[in-house]
């Protein structure tokens, strides 16, 4: 095999620019759908997990136990196995099992309980006394959620979203390989199967950059919102 | 103003037995009074206070505040009634992510006041506790005494008939304690708010209370009258609390 100069590698990569851009869009689409599902379903689920704990405003042993068990159940699946077992559901929901939208189904499934636990854990850090003070002032459960818990936990919730995003950037690469597309898929197809190491390196560097940016933005935002 | 009638509160112990936090107790607190609940740790004084705004629901008996029996109210009615009962906490329990003004505004937002009214009332209450210049600060930027002043302004904001102070000075040094007690007394005198203070320190009782119930093992042992800072104690418990002071 001939050795590749740095200039050749760059030339190859620049030729692939449209494909790389396409892969970025696919990854972004998977992430957006997965994170949206996490917010819409995982967020409320996290609140419910917290609020049904003993001593909280909706304390309910059975509901809390069942929810906790379900969350643990989904979270016990290794992601690759969850993905394969959800193939029939994906086909029903999306009509196909390939492409970023199809890959977003198992991603969403994994993201919901993951985010729910992050939310639950963050809410636990809100001092019980502050919630109690709101109760003593005559706040309704909805007011306690929107005016106390969300406000007091907002910085922790942003950190949770940061963790979730970075984890699922990595999960999306796995989902990509089995037909989802995206950056991870591109890296495997060219960098591994076609021995184009420069593609692999470029994709990894790209991911490193994206992760650094997400973490930086997350940290800045969390710090700005934290007045404690 | 406040009538507790044969209230009783028990808790399940981990071993399956019962812990009697408040044994069947009756107590009446008059309008405009500063009333103390004093006793050692575990005497049931905090539980008794928390029965007044139903943060703890009594197993038996009724809780009447401002002629309304709170134990018979629906959840919505109870929330309305609670807006009439302010509460001040040992650990302040302020919202860390809201400014001083935001914290004082909080109970008013809950009660559905208009923006303009809230702004006006917040300014008034901060004036009362002497924190006008700290309105834009966050609780983390305040001293303990200032935090408690915010707590008092917050409790005062919705024009309550009653303010409950649960060990409100126990996290503060003696000098700050006195200024917080003065602040409570000032509010009592100027606005006629009935104040109930829970404390383990006889000095607090002596300093601002007109009457005080001495508690032990969930029972009222004696109700003390405080006249010009002098306390005539009959029970052994009250005397030991006096000596400790």
From TrEMBL, chain A:
Where the record annotates domain ABC transmembrane type-1, the positions are: 24-218
GO biological process: what's one of them? D-methionine transmembrane transport
Query: Which branch of life, at top level?
Result: Bacteria
Record-linked PROSITE patterns: ABC_TM1
Output the CDD domains linked to this UniProt entry. Answer: TM_PBP2
Q: How does the entry describe its membrane topology?
A: Multi-pass membrane protein
Gene Ontology cellular component annotations, sorted alphabetically: plasma membrane
Q: Where in the cell is it found?
A: Cell membrane
> Does Membrane show up as a keyword for this record?
yes
Recorded hits in Pfam families, A to Z, give: BPD_transp_1
Record keywords: Glycosyltransferase included? no
Where do transmembrane segments lie in this chain? 28-50, 62-86, 92-116, 157-179, 199-218
Signal peptide per UniProt: none
Report the principal subcellular site. Answer: membrane
- What are the record keywords, sorted? Cell membrane, Membrane, Transmembrane, Transmembrane helix, Transport
Give the similarity note: Belongs to the binding-protein-dependent transport system permease family. CysTW subfamily.
Protein name as it appears in the record: Binding-protein-dependent transport systems inner membrane component
Q: What is the lineage of its organism?
A: Bacteria, Pseudomonadati, Pseudomonadota, Betaproteobacteria, Neisseriales
From TrEMBL, chain B:
Write out the function statement from the record. Answer: Part of the ABC transporter FtsEX involved in cellular division. Important for assembly or stability of the septal ring.
UniProt keyword annotations, A-Z: Amino-acid transport, ATP-binding, Cell membrane, Membrane, Nucleotide-binding, Translocase, Transport
Give the family per the record: Belongs to the ABC transporter superfamily.
Report a single Gene Ontology molecular function: ATP binding
Q: What is the lineage of its organism?
A: Bacteria, Pseudomonadati, Pseudomonadota, Betaproteobacteria, Neisseriales
Task: Please name the GO terms of the biological process aspect recorded for this protein, alphabetically.
Answer: amino acid transport
Which species expresses this protein natively? Pseudogulbenkiania ferrooxidans 2002
ABC transporter domain location:
2-242
Please name the Gene3D superfamilies in this protein's record: P-loop containing nucleotide triphosphate hydrolases
What is any Pfam family matched here?
Answer: ABC_tran
SUPFAM superfamilies per record: P-loop containing nucleoside triphosphate hydrolases
One cellular component (GO) term of this entry: plasma membrane
What name does this protein carry? Cell division ATP-binding protein FtsE
């Amino acid at each position: 095999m001939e050795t590749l100069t740095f200039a050749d590698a760059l030339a190859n990569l620049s030729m692939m620019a449209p494909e790389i851009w396409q892969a970025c869009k696919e990854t972004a689409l998977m992430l957006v759908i997965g994170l949206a599902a996490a917010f819409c379903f995982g967020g409320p689920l996290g609140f419910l997990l917290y609020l049904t704990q003993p001593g909280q405003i909706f304390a309910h042993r059975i509901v809390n136990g069942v929810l906790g068990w379900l969350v643990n159940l989904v979270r016990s699946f290794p992601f690759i196995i969850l993905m394969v077992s959800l193939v029939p559901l994906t086909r029903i929901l999306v009509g196909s099992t390939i492409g970023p939208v199809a890959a977003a189904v198992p991603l969403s499934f994994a993201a919901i309980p993951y985010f729910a636990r992050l939310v639950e854990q963050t809410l636990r850090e809100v001092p019980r006394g502050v919630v109690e003070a709101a109760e003593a002032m005559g706040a309704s459960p909805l007011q306690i959620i929107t005016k106390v818990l969300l406000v007091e936990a907002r910085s922790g919730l942003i950190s949770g979203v940061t963790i979730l995003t970075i984890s699922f950037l990595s999960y999306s690469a796995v989902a990509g390989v089995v037909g989802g597309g995206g950056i991870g898929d591109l890296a495997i197809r060219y960098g591994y199967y076609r021995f184009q190491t420069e593609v692999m390196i470029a994709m990894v560097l790209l991911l490193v950059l994206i992760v650094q940016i997400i973490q930086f933005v997350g940290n800045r935002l969390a710090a700005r919102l934290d007045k404690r | 103003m406040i009538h507790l009638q044969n209230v009783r509160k028990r808790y399940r112990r981990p071993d399956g037995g019962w812990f009697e936090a408040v044994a069947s107790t009756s107590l009446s607190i008059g309008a405009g009074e500063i009333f103390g609940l004093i006793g050692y740790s575990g005497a049931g004084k905090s539980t008794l206070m928390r029965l007044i705004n139903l943060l703890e629901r009594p197993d038996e008996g009724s809780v009447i505040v401002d002629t309304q029996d709170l134990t018979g109210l629906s959840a919505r009615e109870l929330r309305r009634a609670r807006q009439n009962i302010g509460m001040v906490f040992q650990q302040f329990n302020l919202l860390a992510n809201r400014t001083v003004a935001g914290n004082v505004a909080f109970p008013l937002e809950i009660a559905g006041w208009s923006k303009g009214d809230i702004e006006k009332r917040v300014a008034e209450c901060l004036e009362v506790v002497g924190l006008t210049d700290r309105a834009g600060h966050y609780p983390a930027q305040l001293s303990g005494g200032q935090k408690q002043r915010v707590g008092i302004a917050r409790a005062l904001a919705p024009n309550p008939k009653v303010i409950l102070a649960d060990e409100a000075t126990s996290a503060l040094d003696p000098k700050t304690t006195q200024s917080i007690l003065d602040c409570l007394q000032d509010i009592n005198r100027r606005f006629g708010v009935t104040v109930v203070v829970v404390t383990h320190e006889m000095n607090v009782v002596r300093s601002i209370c007109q009457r005080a119930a001495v508690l032990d093992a969930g029972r009222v042992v004696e109700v003390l009258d405080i006249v010009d800072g002098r306390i005539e104690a009959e029970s052994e418990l009250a005397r030991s609390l006096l000596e400790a002071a």
